[in-house]
Amino acid sequence: MQIEHIAIWTHNLEALKDFYATYFAAVVGNKYRNPNKQFESYFLSFTTGARLELMQRPTIPATKNDLESQFTGYIHLAFAVGSQEQVDQLTERLRHDGYKVADEPRRTGDGYYESVVLDPDGNRIEITI
Question: What is this structure's pTM?
Answer without folding.
Answer: 0.92
